[in-house]
Design goal:
216 residues; globular; 4-stranded antiparallel beta sheet; alpha+beta
Length: 216
């Protein structure tokens, strides 16, 4: 987090600060007495699940759970990170270097091994997927399947993303999803086609409708 903000949610203000003055997120591990923003603490991960805590501030969550997802995770509706408060998630997409800088690289040595198979790229766009429900399942680790969105926004470089920017990210990431489906077999390909169509109709077009041309 390399910039100062005029407004911080109370949940973020309450967090401890590192020696630079940056808020230390709940999930951060500690290495040699200093907060490590890159490596998630496995104990915090377990506590977040068991105690219904926000992944960013550590406070208890209400009915609305907000997941920070890349566009490919929006299509599959799966992620390896626990949910957050809405305001904490919005702070993250405005402050986290990986989420605000499309060329930033993901660290190869995460403190918590993510479940499933990760697409190792920076999608350039992040979604704040607000839902009232989710389920936890195991697939090479713990994963979350998010429920239908009741609130959804897309972000790029600390600002709301345009429909075109989201589409560009989907286009660039789709070949990796297709390759994995092909490797799994015909049933996986059919399922991917279904989820892509469902995402297009019930998510993308619903929350990012095309702008009507003047005079149309």
């Amino acid at each position: 987090m390399d910039r100062h903000f005029d407004y911080l949610p109370d949940s973020i203000k309450a967090l401890p600060r590192d020696k630079r003055g940056y808020p230390v997120p709940y999930f951060a591990s500690e290495i040699n007495g200093e907060a490590d923003f890159v490596h998630a603490d496995p104990a915090k991960f377990r506590a977040a699940l068991k105690e219904n805590r926000c992944w960013i501030c550590g406070g208890h969550l209400g009915k609305l759970k907000t997941f920070v997802l890349g566009p490919m995770c929006c299509i599959t509706r799966t992620t390896s990170e626990p949910p957050c408060h809405r305001e904490c998630a919005e702070f993250a997409v405005k402050a986290c270097p990986f989420l605000t800088k499309p060329l930033a690289k993901r660290d190869e040595n995460e403190g918590v091994n993510p479940g499933g198979i990760m697409i190792k790229r920076n999608p350039g766009v992040a979604a704040l997927w607000g839902t009232m429900s989710y389920t936890v399942f195991h697939a090479n680790g713990i994963l979350f399947e998010v429920g239908d969105p009741v609130a959804l926004t897309f972000w790029r470089e600390s600002r709301p993303a345009t429909r075109e920017e989201v589409q560009d990210s989907i286009t660039s990431g789709s070949p990796a999803l297709a390759e994995m489906a092909v490797a799994e077999g015909p049933e996986a390909v059919t399922e991917l086609m279904r989820t892509v169509a469902e995402f297009r109709i019930n998510v993308f077009d619903k929350f990012l409708p095309e702008e009507k041309q003047h005079g149309a």
